[in-house]
Amino acid sequence: MSSIENQLILKRAQEQIVASNNSLRKQRFTDEIQGNRIGGVRWVGNHAKHLEHLEKLAKLFGENSVEVDTYIADQKTLAKHGVHPNPFPSIGFGNPTAAAGTATGLLDAKARKLMSESGGAMEYTEALGLAVRQNPGLYEQHVARF
């Protein structure tokens, strides 16, 4: 074999390793998002967008970076604490009869405003999660109702 042939074989092998590593990382992230890992919890929001964001963080900072770990921890915390689009259907988020002056109604209004401002790029669960992070006192008031 010539030197050029060896280089081509080596290049193909390296490309296959990179593709395999990318596929495995994507599967690990997908399992995390879907709550398929030990002690896992299914994340709220758009799973494809979560995966896209994790991939970007991994490329920028590395898969085992603080940035990736922090994002995962934040999303798991939101999911564990029940930030869902309508956790209490009779009195909760998404209910048009919820009083506008209650913490629940205010968080709902803030989430809907964020959705509107995003031009449709943000789903309700994502907007609600952001509204909760921006207004932790309101969320505490909402939780205290139950």
**Pairing-aware structural class of the strands and helices?**
mainly alpha
> Taking Cα atoms only, what radius of gyration do you get, to the nearest Å?
21 Å
Largest sheet: none
- What's the SSE pattern? HHHHHH
Mean pLDDT: 83
Strand content: under 5%
Helix tally?
A: 6
Molecular shape: elongated
Helicity range of the residues?
Answer: 55-70%
Number of strands: 0
Spatial separation of the terminal alpha carbons: 74 Å
Note poorly predicted spans: 85-91
Regarding quaternary structure, what we see is single chain
Walk me through this protein's architecture.
With 146 residues, this protein is mostly helical. 66% of the residues lie in helices and 0% in strands.
Task: Report a brief summary of the structure.
With about 150 residues, the protein is an all-alpha fold.
Task: Present the secondary structure layout.
Layout: H1 3-34, H2 47-61, H3 66-80, H4 103-117, H5 124-134, H6 136-144
Helix pairs in contact: 1-2, 2-3, 4-5, 4-6, 5-6
